[in-house]
Amino acid sequence: MKKVLILGVNGFIGHHLSKRILETTDWHVYGMDMNTDRITELLEDDNYKSRMHFFEGDITINKEWVEYHVKKCDVILPLVAIATPSTYVKQPLRVFELDFEANLPIVRSAAKYGKHLVFPSTSEVYGMCHDEEFDPENSELICGPINKPRWIYSNAKQLMDRVIWGYGMEGLNFTLFRPFNWIGAGLDSIHTPKEGSSRVVTQFFGHIVRGENISLVDGGAQKRAFTYIDDGIDALIRIIANKNGIASGKIYNIGNPTNNYSIRDLAGMMLTLAAEYPEYAEGAKHVKIVETTSGAYYGAGYQDVQNRVPKITNTCEELGWAPTTTMADSLRNIFDAYRSQVAQAKALMD
Q1: Which helix (H) or strand (E) holds 314?
Q2: Which run of H or E residues covers position 254?
Q3: For the NAD-dependent epimerase/dehydratase domain, which residue ranges apply (predicted)?
Q4: Most buried one in 34, 171, 173, 187, CB count within 10 A?
């Protein structure tokens, strides 16, 4: 019976992971977050109250609570991070302060108390790598010039990976996982109208619901390998279980190479699918696809990656895992999940 500490338990990965743990294992979840909107049903479920332990707090303030629970729990997942490109460009110091500085004491506590640290790296660490598939053991990590603050997220995460690896050389039990564009319900709020404030699938979805135009940055030719959240959580559960210590000291890409589509393709797929739903069809009729520049959309410090495909050989072989959800099914699941929220999203236009 493991005790799993999830910092950022109300976030996209945090709430999906908590739900899966409570539904399929006898593990206890100890969670901290500043909000509870995504985990309300878990907190109110009588079946889970004995195993779902929640504290409303902030990792930058409630440091004693965090250290106490690192000491108390078996597996530590520090999932608190800023992961929206517009913030990298507009507030790079905020990204560094939270994603690196605020997480460093948690990493040190995990080392101090001999815990299994499962840390979210990112596909962004590979930057503008030229490889057809990004290999966690061999690919070069290539970032742009200093005057492109977009790379501070990649650099902060890469530096943390290197620090954790260094602690591993001194005995820390760690696993680094790199999510490749995980998508699903609860990724960001569809009620946020401001462009660049959420990630691409949620952004497009909100525009479709409200009948707003979809902006393709620099033509939308850049590709991403999209991964459905349930597939990602499958891999994470195996890492936390860490059967026979297989995941210790490893770096895993968690992504779906077969779901590699351009952003333009994504917009087209979502509009086609929206037409099949009575709740979304009317809004979708008003949507036009327009083009914009990255400078106009994100700000002058943006630079993009044209292709980002994960090599998942070691993830599949060592964890006995494989992604199974197609792009079509991933999008349909998202459209199904938000059917009851259309009115609230539309109200943003009033």
Answers
A1: helix 313-319
A2: strand 250-254
A3: 4-255
A4: 187
Q: Which residue has the tokens 């650099």?
A: 155
User: 11 and 19 in contact (C-beta within 8 Å)?
Assistant: no
Instruction: State the CB neighbour count (10 A cutoff) for residue 293.
Output: 12
pLDDT digits (tens, 9 = 90+) for 268-324: 999 999 999 999 999 999 999 999 888 887 778 888 888 999 999 999 999 999 999
Write the CB contacts of 245 (distance below 8 Å, at least 6 apart in sequence): none
> What residues are paired with 193 via a beta bridge?
none
The tokens describing 99, both together, are 């994603």
Structure tokens given for 123: 């596909």
What's the farthest any 2 CA atoms get from each other in the chain? 59
Identify the weakest region by mean pLDDT among 99-113, 251-265, 287-301.
287-301
Q: Write down the pTM of the prediction.
A: 0.94
Measure the CA–CA gap between 206 and 302, rounded to whole angstroms. 23
In sequence order, the β-bridge partners of residue 29 are 4, 52
Pairing of strands 227-228, 52-56: unpaired
And the tokens for 308?
């980002």
Residue 14's identity, in one-letter code, is G
Cβ count near 270 (within 10 Å)? 22
CA distance linking residue 327 with residue 333, whole number of Å: 10
Alpha-carbon span 332 to 336, nearest angstrom: 6
DSSP SS3 for 302 = coil
Residues sharing a CB contact under 8 Å with residue 122, sequence separation 6 or more, in sequence order: 83, 153, 154, 157, 178, 179
Phi and psi at residue 262, in whole multiples of 5°? -75, 160
Report the alpha-carbon distance of residue 186 to residue 39 in Å, rounded. Answer: 11
Backbone angles phi, psi at 183, to 5 degrees: -130, 155
Separation between Cα atoms, residue 228 and residue 327, nearest integer Å: 8
Give, as one character, the DSSP assignment of residue 212. P
